[in-house]
TrEMBL record:
It comes from the Bacteria. Pfam families: SBP_bac_8. The lineage of its organism: Bacteria, Bacillati, Bacillota, Bacilli, Lactobacillales. Gene3D superfamilies: Periplasmic binding protein-like II. Coiled coil: none annotated. This is Extracellular solute-binding protein.
Length: 422
């Protein structure tokens, strides 16, 4: 039902709410139709305080439907979602999920479409958001999610060490693998690590994209044992073989904070830790194969608002949910303070935000175009293999060929098992 019709049904919705409360419905209907929006999200780290502050600020505006924050560990939340949706009981009114989850939820018929619900919210539209965060929410011609942010991978660097070992490397704000090797060899003479081998997934995926590779060509079958895939993981292994990277067992964050590491590939959200450094640091693009700006790729993801199917969610409450999302669009500075980049372009008008290191990733259309979300439906299976075996390839414990063939086989086998169980 379109939002413009929702208000007309206010009395009917209110009557339904009263009836369900009186019946003491155990299926979650009374809770769903209360004057409260139950909001599940996976923000339990340092960003938990930021999301709580945002919600408190919204509730102080005295909305008809106040938001109840329910933050839980990511793994717990994702395991609970299919259980509650399939049972039809205690389904949250609003949820934050990672971009890579949306295709599977949609294909499993778990999501409520926003199509037709945004008529009264004219500013919730494509031109007011970072394109990569906005576009992925539209599947088969319908919108199934709305973006909160777009968070990405970059490279932190020690400015003092940069001046000593690679004074001109970042004149163009692009750090290439060749520049890393050159600077790393100089730094190694002083027992300084050139670059950290960190979270394999974003490092591999960003380089895979630069190599011209894809996780899948048709969106279903993986294409992971390819020359592009071998080159992508091999490029990171070369840093280890060249002796310019961190070694197995070393703590990259601690090395960086102690001034013993030049380049630290990490997420923009790590700033709460990086701020503990007692030296000047900077943030630039993730390592690149080329200094051609049109070829730069920074692995990205996005926290997205979704509504899971819930027959008991009233039209009146749906309007309250959209009121909250619309408010977030122009009140996202607190989320930026968590080290995130809000997806709303309204944030670019804020002077305080402009001073934040991560702001340069969305400050220009050119830089926005570097952000790439690898929203393959079976991204989770790729991630599981990378988490289990990625460092073995980086530290030369397995061959590049065995790594990519194993990646292809494991993802293919898990997809096949999924299809068999349907």
């Amino acid at each position: 039902m379109k939002v413009s019709k929702l208000v007309k049904l206010g009395l009917l919705a209110g009557a339904s709410m009263t009836f369900l409360s009186a019946c003491g419905n155990s299926g979650g209907s009374s809770e769903s139709n209360s004057k409260e929006i139950v909001f599940w999200n996976p923000f339990t780290g340092a960003d938990s305080a930021n999301i709580k502050n945002m919600i408190d600020d919204y509730n102080k505006t005295n909305p008809e439907f106040k938001v109840k924050n329910v933050s839980m560990k990511e793994g717990d939340m994702y395991s609970k979602i299919p259980t509650v949706v399939n049972s039809g009981k205690n389904i949250p009114d609003l949820n934050i999920v990672h971009a890579e989850r949306i295709k599977q939820y949609k294909d499993n018929n778990m999501l409520t479409s926003f199509e037709g619900l945004l008529e009264d919210y004219s500013e919730i539209k494509a031109e007011n958001y970072v394109p990569e965060a906005w576009n992925l929410g539209e599947l088969d011609g319908e919108r199934y999610s709305l973006p909160l942010d777009i968070h990405n991978w970059g490279t932190y660097y020690n400015k003092e060490l940069l001046a000593k070992y690679a004074p001109n490397a970042l004149d163009d704000n692009i750090l290439t693998f060749d520049e890393i090797v050159e600077a790393g060899k100089l730094a190694s003479k002083d027992d300084i690590r050139g670059i950290a081998l960190t979270w394999v997934k974003p490092n591999y995926m960003a380089t895979l994209g630069q190599e011209g590779g894809q996780l899948s060509e048709n969106g279903i079958d993986p294409t992971l044992d390819t020359e592009e895939s071998k080159a992508a993981i091999g490029k990171w292994n070369e840093l280890y073989e060249e002796g310019v990277s961190t070694k197995d067992g070393e703590d990259p964050n601690q090395l960086f904070l102690s001034g013993k590491l030049l380049f630290l590939p990490e997420g923009i959200w790590l700033q709460n830790i990086i701020n503990g450094a007692e030296f000047d640091w900077g943030l630039t693009n993730a390592p690149q194969l080329s200094d051609d700006m049109s070829q730069v790729i920074n692995w990205s993801s996005s926290h997205q608002f979704v509504m899971f199917n819930n027959e008991d969610r009233s039209d009146e409450k749906t309007k309250g949910i959209l009121d909250f999302i619309d408010w977030v669009r122009t009140n996202s500075l607190e989320w930026a303070k968590a080290g995130q980049n809000p997806a709303t372009l309204d944030i670019l008008n804020n002077e305080e935000y402009q001073k934040m290191p991560q702001s340069f990733f969305i400050n220009s259309e050119e830089e926005q175009n570097t952000l790439k979300i690898f929203d393959y439906k079976y991204n989770g299976y790729v991630s599981e293999y990378l988490e289990s075996h990625g460092f073995d390839a980086l530290f030369s414990k397995v061959s590049i060929e065995d790594f990519t063939s194993g990646l292809q086989k494991e993802v293919s086998d898990k997809i096949s098992k999924d299809n068999t169980n349907k």
